[in-house]
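WARN no homologs supplied; continuing
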Amino acid sequence: MKQSELFPKTRKTAPKGAESINHQLLVRAGFMDQLMAGSWTLLPLGFRVVSKINQIIREEMNAIGGQEMLMPLLHPKSIWNETERWDKASEIMYKLKDPRGKEYVLSFTHEEIVMDLIRKNINSYQDLPLAVYHFSTKFRNEPRAKSGILRGREFMMKDLYSTHATEKDLYSYYEKVKQAYSKIFKRIGFDFRITEAAGGVFTDRNTHEFQVIAENGEDTIYFCQNCEWGSNKEIFKGKEGDICPSCKSGKVKISRGIEVGNIFPLGKWYAEKMGVNFTDKDGSLKPVWFGSYGIGSTRVMGAAVEVSNEDKGIIWFDAIKPFDVHLVELTGAKKTAEIYKTLIENKIDVLWDDRELGAGEKFADSDLIGIPIRLVVSEKTGSELEWKLRSSDKLKLMAIDEVINKLKAR
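OK structure emitted
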């Protein structure tokens, strides 16, 4: 894509009131725009990043048997009354009434909707287990809609739901999801910990959160230096330096974190409330066991910027970069269009800075946008390209064939 055609242009200064790093950099670099507190437009660059995040998630959900679908965002009051969450979760709901007096809520989650689907379509133990997921907008009446895209009132989420014939099967799948989430966040590039947490408005069982280690994180987490044990501050009564309650040998460390995913073993409660039953092998009628698993896609983008940046701008993790390379054309460059065409023909996704601007301004924008590899074409480089990693100051001249081979090997 030609940068001269990219919408919108970069900004030299951060928007007024932007406190968090992701708010400042994502707006300045043209990845997102704020409509109002907690409400964001994903601009073309931002949509590219979130689409790559979603594809990584999709691949790992499919690998554990998840089937993708799409559920409604507008829900009738009646279905939320079945679990009494119309009142219990009222504080975070956006409720509305139509001209005929019927009441609705904008989706903040989809447990009730999935349970309604299951009771319409599941009859026997032979229909179980089942796992379905979707990517959709969520609406939550967040009282502190700040921290950029990390804490929104409207945001994109992947939620997976699983139903099972037994508690053992639920927890077996729960562990599979835990492993799949770990693969997702490793693929993205995060340093993260899995921590135990309370279930909030979803369940009275303990759940697990996936916390990215971040200096500016809103959460306080504790974890073991030797084993995989971790806990959110809200349920851990100890302190840093204590002996790990799990392995009994490592010491407990404390850190700030950004929650990017959570998983909930919901048990039979939803099925019992909504009459979601199946016929077991012995002919008896039993409630299904239920699990819920979420990842905030837009939140993941914000978290990535919070932990991978420097003064000049964003440094995108390779797996979620908006383009493969940033091709920067300087005055006196020859055959840039030919180079661009060659890269495209080799299936390399390119942002070509073809604008009539000075080198300093182009390099500043390149650093701000944060594409991991910059290729410079100038009078000085001649028939070669200057290769530079966003995370390094080292420069190297390469022929186009060498550049292509190196990109394909990454």
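The first strand starts at residue 32 and ends at 36.
OK
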